[in-house]
Design brief:
heterodimer, A: alpha+beta, Rossmann fold, OB fold (Dihydrolipoamide Acetyltransferase, E2P), 2 domains, six-stranded mixed sheet, five-stranded antiparallel sheet, 9 helices, 20 strands, 25% helix, B: mainly alpha, MetI-like fold, 79% helix, globular
């Protein structure tokens, strides 16, 4: 399997800079996701790797070979599209065999390979069916089998699950990962769904406005977002303005209250920072009206299934906290609460970096 | 419970059927009358037409012309419409406008203009129906083929299918031949049928350019021989329909996919 290298990749459409100097190496056998909101350049990047589009400047290397000016039909990549990519005039079997037929592989070995792949995606008994006789999930399985049939060096997936319903999506997602691990094929996966990206990838590259904001393991992206954008885009995050108060013990000042945050150690005293706290790390307990620490009032409850999210106002600042539904019911709307979180779990970002905060996208929880 | 059909609907249906059938029935009665005695019923008019070499000759000219027009039209337009839909969508309104011109320009203007334009071309083109007339008919058929194809191309996801095909290693030619054309076949067929009907019935251009095509022959018979003309009209009606059905059968091919596609792709 091959490595994929993107070198200073830039793509400009008229006045719009879709990709602004992407520099990235994807290791052989690695599963990397491009994650970002629509218009961030993730699909543009994938299309440049596939060869459907040419970069304005920069280079694409597959397995160390410069393929920037090689046509898509000679790159040896397999691609799975969002939807409607199966050839309507061919059966599932013929679709999967198409790439082999184009390569003039003899009929019998082709037949064996097709059967093997349909088996791999669990559709051995749907070989004779036409795309319009298959469900959306089955169509995407066939599309995956078709892309893998040609034994590509690199597998590219362009939001392959976005047209499917939630249950099939999770199921197929796990299956893609299982097959990828088994074949050890270098894979690039494009998605705007952070849950998908985090659950399936070895590494995630978060893109915004044509640039890579952060590239790291899913755990790191979630637990230690490198930029305010990543903090905002991935998962739900409390983003609270604070000032570094004590650089030795590690303490920041939040609306006049000192709060222990390990990340404050070694920073500059008085520095304006953004305090990032995941709602699931926040603890709430009933408090007296004049209690010290971060105390405030429960504003509302949102039932999320496994947890209930409580919105709490402290001063003028609103916090979110995820509690088990049982515990949440003990803290009704209007209750006085004291808020805390483990000092090691919170992140700090310099406020200077936080000018370009994205608007919260309701689709991306 | 079965739904009852409203009496008003039945009335309109009957009027419609009568409108279509009365001329056919009247013509067929007329065609069975003897050209000598004017009495019913004899098949001698049909015999006369069928044994007229000019009938077969003119029919053959028009039939071959129709096929030629269809082939040239599709060869020119399938790749063009494909490319425009794929790469130059901004040109679509321009081509749509160009395609309307043959509707707007009267045939007399078209033929005078074409005769003038092609005046200096060699005889094998200028003096032959398969040259000059075919060129004129391709222009005449342009809107019919274009709009059919355009609808067909818009019904499929041209971009995704093309990219999927390319990513699997197919060249442009393979993509067009194995992926795109099979999926717009119904649209191409529709354009072909319209073209066939137009060429089989086009009189003005052929007559003005003095070619003996089928419609010109019908007109000559009509002027000179009353009852055989009716027989000829019915014969041409039947033959044209048979030819169209043949095109449908040939174009549709076999297999369940083609059956599903005639109703609409995907």
């Amino acid at each position: 399997m091959a490595t994929v290298e993107l070198r200073e990749l830039r793509r400009v459409f008229g006045d719009v800079v879709a990709l602004d100097g992407i520099q990235l190496t994807i290791e052989s056998g690695e599963f990397l996701s491009f994650l970002g909101p629509s218009g961030c350049g993730k699909t543009t990047a994938l299309r440049l790797v596939a060869g459907f589009d040419r970069p304005t400047s920069g280079r694409v290397l597959l397995g160390g070979k410069d393929v920037t000016h090689v046509g898509p039909n000679r790159r040896g990549i397999g691609m799975v599209f969002q939807a409607y990519s199966l050839f309507p005039n061919m059966t599932a079997e013929e679709n999967v065999g198409f790439g082999l037929k184009v390569r003039k592989q003899p009929r019998d070995s082709r037949g064996r390979r097709v059967a093997e792949l349909l088996e791999l995606v669990g559709l051995a008994d749907a070989a004779e069916r036409y795309p319009h006789q298959l469900s959306g999930g089955m169509q995407q399985r066939v599309a995956l089998a078709r892309a893998l049939a040609i034994e590509p060096e690199v597998l590219l997936l362009d939001e392959p699950l976005s047209a499917l319903d939630a249950k099939v999506r999770v199921q197929l997602r796990d299956e893609i990962r299982r097959i990828q691990t088994r074949l050890g094929i270098t894979t690039i996966y494009v998605t705007h769904d952070q849950e998908e990206a985090l659950s399936i990838s070895d590494r995630v590259a978060v893109l915004s406005k044509g640039r890579i904001e952060q590239i790291a393991s899913p755990a790191e992206i979630y637990g230690a977002p490198g930029t305010p954008f990543v903090a905002e885009f991935v998962g739900t995050m409390n983003r609270i303005s604070a000032t570094v108060a004590d650089t030795e013990r590690g303490e920041v000042d939040v609306t006049g209250t000192g709060v222990a945050v390990e990340a404050a150690r070694g920073r500059r005293r008085g520095e304006a920072v953004l305090l990032l706290v995941r709602p699931e790390t926040v603890e709430l307990e009933a408090a007296a009206a004049d209690g010290d620490g971060l105390t405030g009032e429960v504003l509302s409850h949102t039932f999320l299934g496994s947890v209930t999210r409580l919105h709490v106002t402290i001063g003028a600042v609103e916090w979110s906290a995820d509690l088990s539904t049982e515990r949440a019911s003990a803290l009704p709307v209007g209750a006085r609460v004291r808020l805390s979180f483990p000092a090691a779990s919170a992140q700090l970002l310099s406020l200077g970096e936080s000018e370009e905060l994205p608007a919260a996208d309701p689709d991306d929880r | 419970m079965r739904r009852r059909i409203a009496p008003g609907a039945v009335l309109w249906l009957l009027i419609g059927v009568a409108y279509l059938l009365i001329p056919l029935v009247a013509t067929s009665i007329y065609s069975l009358k003897s050209n000598q005695t004017g009495k019913c019923c004899t098949l001698e008019n049909y015999g006369e037409i069928i044994h007229d070499p000019a009938f077969w000759k003119s029919f053959r000219i028009s039939f071959v012309l129709a096929l030629e027009t269809i082939v040239i039209g599709l060869v020119l337009l399938v790749p063009t419409v494909y490319w425009v839909n794929l790469k130059l969508p901004r040109l679509r309104p321009v081509i749509g406008f160009l395609a309307l011109i043959p509707f707007v320009v009267p045939p007399i203007v078209l033929v005078v203009g074409l005769l003038d334009v092609f005046r200096d071309t060699p005889d094998w083109f200028y003096a032959k129906p398969y040259g000059f007339l075919a060129a004129a008919y391709v222009i005449l058929a342009f809107p019919y083929i274009y709009f059919s194809l355009d609808a067909g191309f818009r019904a499929i996801d041209v971009h995704t299918l093309t990219e999927a095909s390319q990513s699997l290693g197919a060249s442009w030619r393979t993509t067009l031949g194995r992926v795109i054309i099979p999926n717009i076949r119904a649209a191409a067929l529709a354009g072909a049928l319209l073209t066939f009907a137009i060429v089989m019935g086009e009189y003005t251009i052929a007559s003005l350019a003095t070619f003996d095509t089928f419609p010109v022959y019908i007109q000559v018979v009509n002027q000179n021989r009353g009852f055989p003309a009716s027989a000829l009209v019915l014969l041409s009606f039947g033959i044209t329909w048979a030819a169209m059905i043949a095109i449908v059968l040939v174009g549709r091919g076999r297999g369940p996919a083609s059956g599903a596609q005639v109703g609409g792709v995907r």
